[in-house]
Specification:
The chain folds into two domains: about 5-130, Rossmann fold (3-Layer(aba) Sandwich), CATH 3.40.50; about 140-215, Winged helix-like DNA-binding domain superfamily/Winged helix DNA-binding domain (Arc Repressor Mutant, subunit A), CATH 1.10.10.10. Helix content is about 55%, strand content about 10%. It is built from eleven helices and five strands.
């Protein structure tokens, strides 16, 4: 009988330079199924500790002394592929959220969340949810889509894709999971899977990585 890993508590690490803020976040996020396993007050300290702990979730403040939270994100995301990194900040600006997602963040939350909302967002990461307010997520996806479209040489029609398949492929190329794509497009994950299958067939590629590469190369 295989172990049910989903029954194990989520291991969370906090990075914030203010001890009182870390204490408040620790108290807010802690639950029987969520365990805070480490804390750091700087990006440099966080980098060393996170590589040792390899937490399931890293809650990371953007405004850190020295190396910024986004710089840490760029440094650590490729080295911790199984860790979901969520920016937790006072700023709800679209620009910061867009930059974070581009560099591998799995979410962007503000510190005025209720404890219940924070716990719900952290739990959702286990199922592949995007930890971000729906309105902000829609703005970020729109911006990513526009940027990708401007950088392409082949429109969807020339690649043989429908408009919806083109949307799915754009988000796929940005590194989103099926569940994240489903959330931002407000369709079911199963529908996303169907679209991905159609995309692979139409582009005559073997997997999602090849499809994303084709997209980035402009068809």
């Amino acid at each position: 009988m295989t172990a049910d890993h989903s029954a194990q508590p989520l291991r969370v690490m906090l990075v914030d330079d203010h001890p009182m803020v870390r204490s408040a976040i620790r108290q807010a996020v802690s639950a029987p199924d969520i365990e805070v396993v480490g804390e750091a007050s700087s990006a440099e300290e966080a980098l060393e500790l996170a590589l040792k702990l390899r937490p399931d979730v890293l809650l990371l403040d953007i405004d850190l002394p020295g190396m910024s939270g986004v710089q840490l994100l760029r440094e650590i995301a490729p080295r911790l592929p199984d860790t979901k990194i969520v920016m937790l900040t006072v700023s709800s600006g679209q620009r910061h959220a867009l930059e974070a997602v581009r560099h591998g963040a799995s979410g962007y939350l503000t510190k005025d969340l209720t404890p219940e909302a924070l716990q719900r967002s952290v739990r959702g990461l286990r199922q592949g949810d995007l930890a971000m307010p729906r309105k902000l997520a829609a703005q970020v996806v729109k911006e990513l889509s526009q940027s990708a479209r401007q950088g392409r040489t082949a429109p969807a029609g020339q690649m043989g894709l429908s408009d919806r398949e083109d949307e799915v492929l754009r988000l796929l190329a940005e590194g989103m999971t099926d569940r994240q794509i489903a959330e931002v497009l407000m369709i079911s994950p199963r529908t996303v899977e169907t679209h991905v299958g159609n995309i692979l067939n139409k582009l005559a590629v073997r997997n999602r990585a090849e499809a994303a590469q084709r997209y980035r190369e402009g068809g």
